[in-house]
Amino acid sequence: MNFLPEGKARDALVKPLKLELKKGCADTATAGSMAGYLRQWLANYPGSGPVVAKVGALASAYPSLGTAARKEAITGILALFEGTAPAAKAPVLAASVAPAVKRQVTPMAIGPDTPVARLAGIGARRANAFKQLGVANIEDLLYHFPRVWQDRSNLIDIIAAKPGMHVTLKGKVRGAATFRAGGRMMITEIGVQDGTGVIFAMYFNQPFRRRQFVVGSTVIVSGKVEARGSHLQIMNPEAEVLPEGDEQLIHSGRVVPIYPLTREISQKVLRQAVWDALDCAARVPDAIPERWANEMGLAPLAESLRQIHFPDSEEQRLRARNRLVFDEFFVVGLGMAMRKAGRKAELGAMIPRGGALPKRLLKGLPFELTRAQLRVWSEIEDDLAKGEPMQRLVQGDVGSGKTLVAALALVSAVEQGYQAAMMAPTEILAEQHLINMRAWFEPLGIEVLPLKQGQKAAGRREVLAHLASGRPLVAVGTQALIQEGVEFGNLGLAVVDEQHRFGVLQRLGLAKKAKMRPHVLVMTATPIPRTLAMTAYGDLDVSIVDELPPGRTPVATRWLLPQAREEAYDAVRIQVQEGRQAYVIYGLVEESEKAERRAATQMAVHLSQDIFPEFKVELLHGRMKPEEKDAAMERFKSGKAQILCSTTVIEVGVDVPNATLMMIEDADRFGLAQLHQLRGRVGRGAARSLCYLIGRPNTEEGIKRLEAMVRTTDGFEIAEEDLRLRGPGEILGIRQSGIPDFKLASLVTDQAILAEAKARAEAVIKDDPRLESRDNAPLRDLVARRIEKKLQLAEVG
């Protein structure tokens, strides 16, 4: 390979550089800038080597370098021509006498519990970085699965490589050089040649590479090809010197795993660590009985761990994945089934069926329950009468009558001498429940007490005293019910409404207010993905109110681009002129420079002055004082205001049957569950209702969300779409949605494996609820290692 330019090319570089040195490196030696001159020289000179690399680095950095740094860089380049460069700065061609570096072999003494620091090349510093990935020991490392796989098994000739291509090449090391390129930048250049051409592997600040690549050795390099003058190069490629003997390649020449990383761990370091750890794969405990694996055609665990990291083929990788997906579903299924069995073994409030107060409540209603409501109430009655803690989820679309079913449970608890509590996520919804409960319960002689934020001190103290006394009553409130200082003397039933609006820890907090485990009833109008995932494991008993009361008309939904919002304004005007009311919803309270979105405060003025001056426009948002919100809501309910300009504070709990139109601005910024809840504020009477979604989504997911809203008003179908788009969330963790608690498994695509794993787990726990038998000891250990710490959170959905 030609390292030094000669003739005219040499003179065109050396003379200006010497003149620049003579003039004190003031960037005055050339007609233009020195950087521009050097770039032009590079374009004209078709060679390669350390001079080219140094000139390129100097051209990029020259304007920002000080005088001393410029002198050092120019002197370094000139020294290459004159043979006077110091030894540390001169290009050093690798000798062919250096031995090939073999990878260190991990001692066979390590096991699954061995700290990862014991692996060759890891040590204490890297071990700390591994902990950030959740990897503490060898077993953790083996279960740190790749995120993708890259096929580097197809080698191409160098002559076929083109700029922009990601390639894997095989060739002989023709030469290696390390040199300084200004300042502290060290460049190592490796020339690789096959029978068709030469390509250069370039590394920055990695001088050890010169020792790694011995002249004459065979290497495989992988990376993105770039053009530099007339030659090709790959910057910082993954490369591997072909080992002697039968050792397999790790980083090239095969299907290569690509892992989730942290800053201090490279792909190569992590890949090597996993490769070394695979010696222990056969010693990782396999809790799946061999007969099960044979029945289901599952691969052995050790083989699956090897094939998921370094697959021999796509078929082998998929087979390994199926085995490991089954394991993930099975261990979580065991834990959930154990939790459910343990809960059923505890004592709960005994509330017999057929109480007098529920019958009186039903008799006093001006309508009859739907068949779906009656079915769900019967299922709840069965739970309450068992004497074991109920853990039931009631799913029902907006307006299906879930609250009334919960009310029947509340009065049943109070009739037997227990306290009952109903927690709502917003003050507006809590106030709505308070109004309904008092209207239903006070004629029955049941006391209903509120507990919410901003309550006057004297009233709050009185409520807290009644709760602590244990006297039978119903408490209705927000998360104020779970604050410190709130104690229930005899809580028998806890109802959590719109459960997806609460964090898991908040829901758990209400259940913990009881001196014994209370019955827990959670309700949702739109099951979020996390709820669907919990349901899949059967930790919650599920009831579905799948029938709307007579007279309800489905809401027609349209999606409009922002420039077409006048159509929605015209529809609002028509509805109000006919005596109806409308909502206009915004995601922000105030305008923000950081968010190019419309905001409720400013738009309320615009709507009232410019768009609908003939109508009364009311403003409502979460930053208003409670009394201001109550007054605004009362003016809208009473019809004194025809249009409510609001944020999502009205998402739940607002029931105005005369409101028949909703317009949602920036609809693509909202989640599906929230859009469905907002839409549920209209269509609550017999009149035809409309919902306009205004938005210009810039992502595929945003488009699919709005298309789903237009396509269906079925909350369960929307929830399934949400599951596909957002993922199930941590099944046993705290997050509501997003990153799953699975490393490989998908609740969307692996449903067949899920069904098999769930059935097996439930069968095991039915025969041995606490996994106490000798045969099930490995399963008990597996649950303890993987998910035991998270099980408590799973209790409350």
Structural notes for this entry:
By secondary structure, this protein is an alpha/beta fold. The protein is 39% helix and 15% strand. The chain contains 27 helices and 21 strands. The strands form four sheets. Strands 11-12-10-13-14-9-15 form a seven-stranded parallel sheet, with helices on both faces. A six-stranded parallel sheet has the order 16-21-20-17-19-18, sandwiched between helices. A hairpin with a 4-residue loop joins β3 (186-193) and β4. α2 runs antiparallel to α3. The chain is globular. Mean pLDDT is 83; it is low at 84-108.
Keywords:
797 residues, alpha/beta, 7-stranded parallel sheet, 6-stranded parallel sheet, 21 strands, 39% helix
Question: What is the structure about, briefly put?
Answer:
This protein has 797 residues and is α/β, with parallel strands linked by helices. The chain has a 7-stranded parallel sheet, with helices on both faces.
Secondary-structure blueprint of this entry?
Blueprint: H1 7-22, H2 34-44, H3 50-61, H4 67-82, H5 123-132, H6 138-142, E1 148-151, E2 166-180, E3 186-193, E4 198-204, H7 209-212, E5 218-228, E6 231-235, E7 238-241, E8 255-258, H8 267-277, H9 290-296, H10 301-309, H11 314-344, H12 356-363, H13 371-385, E9 391-396, H14 402-415, E10 419-423, H15 427-441, E11 448-451, H16 457-469, E12 474-477, E13 491-496, H17 504-511, E14 519-524, H18 529-537, E15 541-545, E16 556-560, H19 565-577, E17 581-585, H20 600-611, E18 617-620, H21 626-637, E19 643-646, E20 659-664, H22 672-679, E21 690-694, H23 700-711, H24 715-726, H25 751-767, H26 777-786, H27 791-794
Parallel strand pairs: 4-6, 9-14, 9-15, 10-12, 10-13, 11-12, 13-14, 16-21, 17-19, 17-20, 18-19, 20-21
Antiparallel strand pairs: 1-8, 2-3, 2-5, 3-4, 5-6, 5-7
Helix pairs in contact: 1-2, 1-4, 2-3, 3-4, 10-11, 11-25, 11-26, 12-14, 13-14, 23-24
